[in-house]
Prior knowledge:
Layout: H1 2-9, H2 11-27, H3 30-47, E1 50-55, E2 67-70, H4 77-84, E3 90-94, H5 103-109, E4 113-115, H6 120-135, E5 140-141, H7 164-169, E6 173-179, H8 183-186, E7 193-199, H9 205-208, H10 213-232
Parallel strand pairs: 1-7, 2-5, 2-6, 3-4, 3-5
Antiparallel strand pairs: 6-7
Helix pairs in contact: 1-3, 2-3, 2-5, 3-4
Amino acid sequence: MRIALMIIRLFYAVAYYLIRMSWMGKHSTKEKTYAFVKHCVKRANDKGRVKIVPYGIENLPKEDGYVLFPNHQGLYDVLVFLETCPRPFSFVVKKEVKNVPILKQVIGALHSLPIDRNDLRQSMEVIKTMTERVKNGENFLIFAEGTRSKMGNRMNDMKGGSFKSAVKAKAPIVPCALIDCFKPFDERSTKEITVSVHYLKPLYYEDYKDMTTVEIAAEVKRRIEEVLFTVDA
């Protein structure tokens, strides 16, 4: 219902946004394209009656080439980062949603990477590509749980393999706690709603170089759950 509300209230602008977004993804700079995507997302959130409250933006590394690792609550999650993250980033998304209207244009504009979780070879290629791009100073977002939790503000375990790109690139790992982000698209309501994201202090390579990816995944989950448990308490 909220997606419909966003589209209806932006009816005359949607076509322009999508065409412009696709063009900029091919012909404009990363910074200008990201700024336009942020503008579109901000308007969609306003029209959809969703307020996003960010915390800890000052924790983001000063230099690009970091990876955001949030908990995963649903399709709305990426929109939270597109409105609040001050630096351009790309994201890894399951291939099942790569052709969803609007999301398809965002994926293309930001040069994000669809991944087939059932195809090991393709998954490894995505990890390899992401690693090289992070090494070259690009920021990425990946959902290490693999699929949304479907348990509100509770998490599934994070998969160690999702951290391989960050480890190989020796990149800062930024845990992010999403709160109530399942509500905008999962609840059959269009009432005003507030969601939040907490950018937590990063783990730098020196912090995790002696850890396995499974241990890193557990530590990132622990840090995120500290915030989630505080909210639910």
